[in-house]
Amino acid sequence: MLSALVTVFALAATPPLVTTEGVTLDDKGKAPFEAPFFGVQIDAGAPDGIGASLVVTPGRFFRLHAGGLTNGVGSGVRFGAMLMAFPSFAFRPFIGIDGGYVFGGELAWLPQLLKDESLRNAVTGVSVGFANAQVGFEVGSKNVAFTLRAGLSYVDIGMANQSISTGGTSMVTVSGIALRGFIPSARLGFIFCFG
Predict the structure, then answer these.
(1) Over the stretch 54-95, which tens digit does the pLDDT of each residue have?
(2) 33 falls in which pLDDT band (50, 70, 90)?
(3) What is the pLDDT of residue 7?
(4) Which whole number is the average pLDDT over 26-45?
(5) H, E, C per residue of the chain
(6) Domains, the chain, ordered by start
């Protein structure tokens, strides 16, 4: 009984294994996985458009991102979070939520594509709000990975009041229009992490 008690105290008093670099090893003698803290995410998809975000990994299984995006007509912002399974593996499935808003804008290249000024005005006055719930995966190292995700999005598409020419001197004024509903969503991209 006394020898068992001495063994328990000896194991409890054993200092942890530490490498010459100062890394504390686990019970099996392996260095614990540490996810890079900062990163950059570049992606494209619908309904988001093309985006670039800063990525922060405050915990092993948890990642946050915030950044800008564009849909070709306007620019906006996006924020999100994801939970990742198997963060130390090369194939990492995850679930994520994010939301954002693309403000209506103007395009310098649109007049060359649309000759009708009323159509140009209608397209440039569109803004899009969205919320995504998606599942997906990352493939790659902990510093560089390809991502693919798909899911469901709630979108709120709004068009500001428009005055549309009907030809000659006639004008029709259209009050703001809003379209809301759920649509499928998908996004692919790359994540570059460091730190």
Answers:
(1) 999 988 899 999 999 998 778 899 999 999 998 888 999 999
(2) low
(3) 59
(4) 79
(5) CHHHHHHHHHHHHCCCCECCCCCECCCCCCCCCCCCCEEEEEEEEECCEEEEEEEEEEECCEEEEEEEEECCCCEEEEEEEEEECCCCCCEEEEEEEEEEEECCCCCCCHHHHCCCHHHHHHHHCEEEEEEEEEEEEEEECCCEEEEEEEEEEEEEEEECCEEEEEECCEEEEECCEEEEEEEEEEEEEEEEEEC
(6) 33-194 (2.40.160.20)
